[in-house]
Design a protein that fits this description.
This protein is mainly alpha-helical. The protein is built from six helices and no strands. It has a single domain, classed as Orthogonal Bundle (Cytochrome Bc1 Complex, Chain D, domain 2). The longest helix has 13 residues.
């Protein structure tokens, strides 16, 4: 019983919070300027850019804030995110994390 309770709690904590339609719409609009490097649906077309689709919300928020605040540097990212608000960043993170990505292990 205890193991089931702990497993259930861990699963709940790992899940992102509620995502509202307005967050997704705002994120979709903001993502337009990301698509040149990260692809229209978060699957990168540029070999130097990571895929964003399906990434965890908290990871995306931290990474974008780190670029915006100068803790991480990349000439393109710094320019693109420098004027984003915290709410903009949350919307972008929710947009990209809402994509479902599947993985197939090798044979």
């Amino acid at each position: 019983m205890r193991a089931a309770l702990i497993s259930g709690l861990a699963l709940m904590l790992a899940m992102p919070g509620p995502t509202f339609a307005s967050d997704l719409e705002d994120g979709r609009k903001l993502a337009r300027k990301c698509s040149a490097c990260h692809g229209k649906n978060g699957m990168a077309r540029d070999a130097e850019a990571p895929n964003l689709a399906g990434q965890q919300v908290l990871y995306l928020e931290k990474a974008i804030k780190d670029f915006r605040d100068g803790h991480r540097e990349d000439r393109r990212m710094t320019l693109v995110v420098k004027n984003l608000s915290d709410d903009d960043i949350k919307a972008l993170a929710k947009w990209y994390s809402s994509f479902k990505v599947t993985v197939e292990p090798p044979d």
